[in-house]
Design goal:
The protein is mainly α. The chain has a domain at 50-230: Tetratricopeptide repeat domain (Serine Threonine Protein Phosphatase 5, Tetratricopeptide repeat, Alpha Horseshoe). Helix content is 75%, strand content 0%. It is built from 31 helices and no strands. The protein has helices at 5-13, 15-24, 31-40, 46-60, 64-73, 98-117, 121-134, 138-151, 154-167, 172-184, 188-201, 206-230, 240-248, 264-276, 281-304, 309-328, 332-345, 349-361, 365-378, 383-395, 399-412, 417-429, 433-446, 452-463, 467-483, 492-503, 507-523, 528-540, 544-557, 561-582, 584-599. The chain is elongated, with a radius of gyration of 33 Å. The two termini are 38 Å apart. Mean pLDDT is 85; it is low at 1-75. The structure holds 2-acetamido-2-deoxy-beta-D-glucopyranose (5 copies). One 2-acetamido-2-deoxy-beta-D-glucopyranose binds next to loops.
Length: 604
């Protein structure tokens, strides 16, 4: 199953970049490449510009600065009109000139600042509010929002920052403040929108905004995924490609002892087994249904004659398969129950292998190995046991143990291709490149028409950076796959090649990669890797709705929580991107930024 992971890993490596396409927004081919370049290039200094703007407001505020200095020396005569009690009196302000009003507003704000400094937030709010009454200035709203931050009144923070942003949409300080408030309120998507805008305006150090963005992104995805999981949607079979590679390692079992032609249960079981090893999409679906049906039929029969050992043996076969299908459909608990019942009826090596896999899935390594021992006690020559145990050793980097098990599996059944390939991959991982080449050659000689060999060899080549060579191997694998009946490597070579193509951004590659992913989606509609790959390209083509739909489907299909979370993250990120594009101010800013980078020759 290791070949299945390539796209997932690719996506994982590019996670931040994909998330960051939020900020890239309107893009052409190669959005993430673009972003990575942005990361490395010094941004045009918005800070300086901003500095100028701040200076402007200061100037507008009149000789305020000097004045406030003088003020503190002269024990402050207020610059705003006061009543007999010394409280601000704004009853006549309406008639004053704009210049006079500005002066008064700034005076009120300065008073607010004084209160703020001495942490008298309610007084500060009062003066900022008066300042706002005199002049609708974003700075005053911003200042008042700072008070609400200190008071922990997040809704008010959102209100004031929103007011400030209406007057000055690129007010980064307010965007950041609103994002923080929205995060506290649990509105992570809103926070992400603001943070994306902040990162776009570049007033804040990108490396300080990005963790915030990522944190909100994680919280949002977690929230959405939790809600989704609570709906308990019926689980689906995994991709046909995954099913074929999973059952490919086991010895085909297309008959059983004491078959009774006149028994419906027996006929159903035989049909299920036959369908399972047909290696077709319909076959897997029908096998799934037939095993369940056979199980029910045996259950009824066993209710009538509970001590019939022959029946139990057959029921065990049905239950074992029902169990493994449940496991594959991502319901390990129910799967475990069925498999325990199966070994009670009649212990079979494969049942223990499957239980071992469930244990591994739960992270219970010890029980994993115990179950393999049980399987070997029944059949010391069961190749599948050695193969799966070898894989576990491989994953946990116990390479020499893994090697021994793969060798054993190979010697037990020389006509099964998987141990050959795993040995070759293992040898490569151990750094013995030429030995690995030899093993691949051996496999190729022995299985000249097997698509597995070029499919896995492609991964090795890609890992070495020989992308052209890897693509060629995927092409060979795809051709061999087509020539065979039934599913062997399925859509893996299509996905593999498409992934390589999308890594080397060019218009032709992009078009071809899209076609390959589309073909993979069509051939194997439950392949979440095909969907994720296609979704990413759709995102870059600005087909955001399609991308969101594909990411969400992928999240439903994904098996592990982490994979689900990742696909959900992409979906949520795409939704933010959509929102950003719909926002005229922010998307105009994106255009401006892109134009600037184009002018610098960063974008082709
Ligand atoms: C009020 O706004 C000005 C300008 O942004 C800023 O320099 C000052 O620190 C702010 N005061 C408070 C209390 O936020
Ligand atoms: C969070 O911020 C958004 C702006 O992005 C705003 O429209 C929304 O109302 C805020 N959420 C709350 C609960 O105030
Ligand atoms: C941005 O922040 C990072 C980490 O906080 C720091 O290492 C880096 O020097 C900062 N860069 C600039 C341009 O301020
Ligand atoms: C075969 O199945 C039929 C129908 O269930 C049953 O009547 C018959 O006894 C079975 N024969 C044997 C040999 O078990
Ligand atoms: C060996 O593996 C091949 C290919 O999977 C299979 O057809 C065959 O039945 C296996 N033989 C044994 C003895 O396991």
């Amino acid at each position: 199953m290791s070949s299945d992971n390539s796209v997932g890993q690719f996506v994982a490596r590019n996670k931040t970049a994909v998330i960051a396409t939020i900020a890239a927004g309107a893009t052409a081919v190669g959005a993430y490449c673009y972003y990575l370049q942005l990361q490395q290039t010094k941004k045009p200094s918005r800070k300086e510009e901003e500095g100028e703007k701040e200076a402007e407001t200061e100037i507008k505020g009149g000789k305020k600065k000097k004045k406030s200095k003088r003020k503190s020396q002269a024990l402050s005569a207020p610059v705003y009109p006061v009543d007999a009690n010394g409280d601000p009196d704004l009853s006549n302000v309406a008639d004053l000139s704009a210049e006079q009003k500005d002066k008064i507003a700034v005076g009120l704000k300065d008073k607010g600042n004084e209160f703020f400094k001495s942490q008298k937030y309610h007084d500060a709010i009062k003066f900022y509010t008066l300042a706002i009454e005199v002049k609708n200035d974003p700075v005053f709203y911003s200042n008042r929002s700072a008070c609400y931050v200190s008071l922990g009144e997040q809704e008010k923070v959102v209100e004031d920052t929103t007011a400030a942003l209406k007057l000055k949409p690129d007010y980064s300080k307010c965007l950041l403040r609103r994002a923080t408030a929205n995060e506290s309120l649990g509105n992570y998507a809103d926070a992400m929108f603001d943070l994306s805008a902040v990162s776009l305006y570049g007033d804040f150090n990108g490396s300080s905004v990005e963790p915030l963005l990522e944190r909100n992104m994680n919280k949002q995805s977690m929230l959405v995924l939790k809600q989704k999981l609570e709906q308990h949607k019926p689980s689906q079979l995994p991709a046909n490609t995954a099913l074929a590679s999973f059952f490919g390692i086991f010895k085909p079992e297309t008959s059983f002892d004491n078959y009774n032609e006149t028994s419906e249960a027996d006929r159903t079981l035989l049909d299920a087994l036959t369908k399972l090893y047909e290696r077709t999409a319909e076959g897997y679906e029908q096998a799934d249904l037939s095993f369940s049906k056979a199980r029910e039929l045996y259950k009824t029969l066993l209710d009538e004659s509970p001590d019939n050992e022959e029946l139990k043996k057959k029921a065990a076969i049905a239950l074992e398969h029902v169990g493994i299908f449940k496991f594959l459909k991502n319901d390990p608990l129910a799967a475990h129950e069925d498999l325990k019942q199966a070994v009670e009826y009649f212990p079979r090596p494969n049942s223990y292998v499957y239980i071992a896999l469930i244990m591994a899935d739960k992270g219970q390594g010890e029980e994993y190995f115990e179950n393999f021992e049980k399987a070997l006690q029944i059949d010391p020559d069961c190749a599948a046991v050695y193969y799966h145990r070898g894989q576990m050793y491989f994953i946990t980097q116990q390479f020499s143990e893994a090697g021994k098990d793969f060798e054993k599996a190979k010697s037990l059944n020389e006509s099964n291709i998987f141990p050959y390939i795993q040995l070759a991959c293992l040898t490569y991982r151990e750094g013995k490149r030429s030995d690995s080449e030899t093993l691949f050659s051996e496999a190729r000689r022995k299985f000249p028409t097997a698509p597995e060999v070029p499919n896995f060899y492609a991964e090795i080549l890609a890992d070495q950076g020989d992308l052209a060579g890897a693509r060629k191997q995927y092409e060979i694998a795809a051709k061999l796959e087509k020539a065979l009946t039934g599913i062997h490597v399925g859509v893996s070579p299509l996905i593999g090649k498409a992934t390589l193509l999308s890594r080397e951004a060019s218009v032709e590659n992009f078009v071809e990669a899209t076609e390959l992913f589309e073909e993979a989606c069509q051939l194997d509609p439950r392949s979440e890797q095909a969907k994720i790959g296609l979704a990413q390209l759709k995102l870059q083509q600005e087909d955001i709705d399609e991308a969101i739909a594909l990411f969400e489907e992928a999240a439903d299909l994904a098996r592990s929580f982490d994979e689900k979370l990742q696909a959900t993250t992409f979906a949520e990120a795409s939704k933010i991107q959509k929102k950003i594009k719909a926002d005229p101010i922010v998307s105009a800013k994106i255009e401006e930024t892109l134009a600037a980078y184009r002018a610098q020759g960063i974008l082709g």
